[in-house]
Fold:
Amino acid sequence: MSIEKTLAESVSFEGVGLHSGEATGCEVGPAPPGTGIVFEVGGPAPTRIPARAQYVSSTRNATTLARGGAAVATVEHLLAALSGLGVDNARVVMAGPELPILDGSARPFVEAILAVGLEAEGRPRRWRKLLREICVEDGDRRIRLLPADALSIHYVADFPHPCVGRQSIRFDTFSPALFAAEVAPARTFGFAHEIEALQAAGLGRGGSLENTVVFDAEGVRNPGGLRFPDEVVRHKVLDLVGDLALLGAPLCARIEVLKGGHALHRAAVDALLGDPDACPFESAV
Structure:
């Protein structure tokens, strides 16, 4: 029987928030069975914000959760790391308004979690198993979810830049080892001509070449170049894994995405939650 897991020990992270530009940090630690992923925000009597879809307040350039006047921003990379490694329960104590962006990927989170290890908790793990097709569209963007016995992802990204263009990647199986090696290292990215407008809107203030892949008219600005030739679409898969964690349980489905993003991911999660007969909980055996 597959059982729930949590971290064996706590791990801490410090850095800058990608969008706020403020110094921030968090401690990610063990939590009891059945807890899920919960953020604790503010002071000696913190507000607890479960990583669930009903607490999403914004998907503009990142995913923000809010409850009772408290909020935590840019949660998707940590959620992807936890979900991708099979962590069911964790307590995330925040020391700022936003998760630290670190190197722009989920790799630092993954490496720290693997270093302390996971602990089995004795409670059967629950999954959400898709029973019928669900499709969400927005113009030429689309997410199609189909019944399957395990998670698989086919993602297509398309950007009008010569270093990006149309990128496609398919993972017919999805395991913690695959996530750690093939998805977690892919960094967030942006285009130089969009940065001024982003910062004028109060976003991207903590972005730098140390945490963001930047494409300009000549190519990739980052001195080290890309980690993968198709790093853009791999990062899109990373964001999808993080956003799917808001379902509150791993998903068994075949997922096909064309030109997705946080808003479309959120719409797909809402569609799944809005049709519980199509995507019920099941215990894994």
Q: What stands out?
A: Residues 127-283 form a domain with the lpxc deacetylase, domain 1 fold (CATH 3.30.1700.10). Residues 231-244 form the longest helix (14 residues). The mean pLDDT is 94. The chain is about 20% helix and 35% strand.
